[in-house]
## 1
Amino acid sequence: MSELSQLPLLFWVVAPLTIVFAYTVFGMSGFGSTVIAIPILANWLPLTFLVPLMALGDLVAAVFVGGTNRQHVSGAELKRLLPFMILGIALGVTVLVSFPQEPLKIGLAFFAMAVGLHSILNPSPKGTISPWWCVPAGTVAGILAAVFGAGGPVNVAYLAGRLRDKGEIRSTVSVIISVSATLRTTFYALAGLVLKAGLLAAFAMAVPFAWAGIAIGTRIHIGLSNEQMRRAVGVVLVASGAVLLARILRG
């Protein structure tokens, strides 16, 4: 519990709001909770604590969102992406436990801003991409998922180029995230990052806020267009990455 007991009051105000909003986005889109929450919460907690924590949360959330819309899942795209994502996760866990935190946080800040800008400037991808893009997409998504807990945007970028129905994209990426979260949680546990009293306590405290966010996001999803959703998430990602980068540079 030492990671939590020393945190300032500001954290206890910002963290619940961040979790609610992050999982509202997840309920809307089937992804995005981690890439939104971690750049904000990394101002107080290390990635080796946050990434496993959000993996547990994403596992529960993805099972709920994907399970309730199973008929919309694209089995063909799952078969293409998952083998390469597993390879990427194995590589990414090695990076997470071996590299210093500061460069990883800087990389996360720039990654969040880049994904956000892409979502704002290109909210409606045109055309259908080759299925062979599953190789780099799956591998890179796995690495980013393991290091930052943020493979969702890459998976969605690939699926948006292959699928056109927003419900099909949301359900498929939710299943991908549930598999990713299961694998990451297993790898993190083997690396000694999960079975800690502080992390499990934080997960228990976060569950009610995450559940509220999913409920809100699911309602919003029904009336929201793909373009509106991608632009809104993009704005939040740019802001989150900028705040994290400014804090790092300020020291």
Note: The chain has one domain: 2-250.
## 2
Amino acid sequence: MKLLEMNHVRKEFDGVEVLKDISLAVEEGEVVSIIGPSGSGKSTLLRCATLLEQMDSGDLIYMGEYAARTDGGKCVYASKAELKKLHRCFGLVFQNFNLFPHYSVLKNITDSLIAVDKLPKKEAEERAGRLLEQLGLSDKRDAYPYQLSGGQQQRVSIARALAKQPKLLFFDEPTSALDPELTVEVLKVIKALAKEHMTMVIVTHEMQFAREVSDRIIFMEGGVIKAQGTPEELFTTENERVREFIGHLSGK
């Protein structure tokens, strides 16, 4: 079953086309990594997929339901009520954690569950507690973000996204703000989620990780998808540009 479809997506900023006719689909249980140089449109694609940016044209479909479609050359979005419903299909983990500094770890996870999803406080806290235990953070539930390492903060933001029980999880460069030791800690969590068949779309510059965890890797450059395939296909490709990019980031 396709959880996500994006068809012929275009997006420009100040007359510069950042996404040029991009189409992709993500199947349930699939892990898709998106790689490519800075400025290739990877993060913009994620922001369009998660409704943080409006597409200029194209279709955005979650589980067969249209969040947006092109009509008369323009992108028309679904109603607010419909978008709110579709919002529950996915979670997003940012590169800079985006935790509320004045909230405890527990409140960072439960606040939206209680305020937006109208979950009873007890149920929200039980759900958060289970996730904190799963991510090795049980002893940090009453701590504040400034009291945590970067790796711990990122694990809290993963717990917050998982708490909403999404069908699909997006990661935008989840380790780019972390040093190598903390990077390993976060990638371990994502690998564990992949083993549980969590559907994920991961923008990353960690080549070895992408190779190990992905069912499919997409290489973007200049706002288009230049190549895609299994990790084996991309890491042994004859495509000179892809080889050069992977080799450079892999230190080869």
Note: The longest helix spans residues 180-195.
## 3
Amino acid sequence: MQKLTYAASVMCACLMRLEDDIQALERVGIDELHFDIMDGVFVPNITLGPDFIRAAKEISNLKCFAHLMITKPETYIKRFKDAGVDGITVHVETSCHVQRLLTTIRDAGLSVGIAINPATPLTKLDYLLDYVDRVLVMAVDPGYAGQTIIPSAFERVRILKRNLVERKLHVAIEVDGNITARNAAQLAENGAEIFVLGTASIFNSGNPADQFSAFVHEVDAKRKALA
């Protein structure tokens, strides 16, 4: 089985225990930190900013990725680079000049991601896949944690993976939204490689590090059953 990559959604963490929980997750093998940046305009919520990423870089060696769910993301690339991000993901829906925006992120020396909302046709990505390292498929409407996965997400991942294989592009598929062990196993079977973990997996109750270890074990078992 292909090794999966797991990112902890900082938006879903308990901010009072953020340092302890991030360091504990790092010790048990979480791969990345995922920062949902929301402006209350593109999505109906306001969340984290560059200062959270800067603080995380001081307490952890994990890679940090900013998922910009904001209007005019092109005006914030430098601020997030200066905060220490390793990569930036922007939404295909937020810019009239997406290719230029992706090139700006690449020129800044960062990993490049493109995100797509559940109701946006995958064809919107056709001329952008050559410019990115990952595609973030939203499995819920962005804005709030705790939603139920939209069933079409599984088929969208399968179609996207087939397109990438046919074009011989080495682009990773990331999925965010209600990532349970069952959903992750099925999405991995369809071609997803990176999973953003939040309230459905590691930040619901108890110790996030213990929950992550149990989650990975359950996903592996379910993937073997599907093989």
Note: Helices lie at 18-27, 50-59, 77-83, 98-107, 152-166, 181-190, 208-226.
## 4
Amino acid sequence: MFFQKRKLLRNPKLRFLITLVPMKFIRFLAFPFSLIYAIVTTLRNHFFELGIFKTTQFKKPVIAVGNLSVGGTGKTPQIEYLINLLKADYKIGVLSRGYGRKTKGFLLVDETKHAEDVGDEPLQFSKKYKDITVGVDENRVHGIQQLNNTEVVLLDDAFQHRKVTAGFYVLLTSYNDLFSKDFVLPTGNLREPRTGARRADVVVVTKCPLTIDAQEKKDLQYLIKRYFKGPILFSSIVYSALLKSNNKLSIQASELANYHVLLVTGIANPKPLKAHLSSLNCTFKHLKFSDHHQFSDKDITTIQSTFDALNSEQKIMLTTEKDFVRLSDKIDDVYYLEIETNFGGHQQEFDDLITRYVKSNT
């Protein structure tokens, strides 16, 4: 989110103002800046479409996964879904810019790298899938060129990266935060106007409740079809039944009701995970950090002391899979919960869209 109250509150001079002025009102005041931002991003897109700005296409299939809004829409589990769908038949390369890394240029990601070097998500992909190639590069054209021994390239968070023209675009929008009901920054959360959705080949409404019915899907499709005329599908996040850790021990998620849990997150939207823990009748305390937060020694001390202070004989420290990549080499006894994308009744339709594109361009 462009304006985040927790960041503003770090400035003592603004604390009193924040208590008096609602955040929605601040965003409203920023509306003129949103108009300027929308004009600039629209012109940029037109310049790429007219060929004034250079863009590069590749002969191999390139699938870009991204969104119009800032914040979490489920890109990581969507990339993993595509890896699982294609890796048996093709040599897969995944390219990310490596958000939050301290390095520059192209790097291949492997077990020797740290999250500070390559970013948490690329490191997660590399550790989880040994038979794919993962690279990071802020220059996506150069990065794809370096992924020589690959047949299909998946671009992570690349919907606005117009210097590469992907062959297939998967646009994600969250069930609770549809792009079709949002505004551009800083009044809203959109990186570009809603009309940017027309570049997509498929729109996936992510993080839907498992109980979503046909009528609600129809209503959501109606809102999105104002800006996108192609296939609109729906997916949900499914949590693993097992908690995993570095010590090779697994715990059934259903057993969390017997523990006092310290939940540590550094993701954009931890609300679904908190709701999941509540559904398991789990007692938990939540330490929330910003998205992609790089945990300092001071943070680790705070986390460990908070965990030690839990008044329970049965206690456990739990985090997300993405955060585990950044925490596992700093805290020994921490568990994580895997998630995956579930398309439900839309799985075959989505799979067919992807496999038809890849087969026709390989």
Note: Residues 69 and 189 are 5 Å apart (CA to CA).
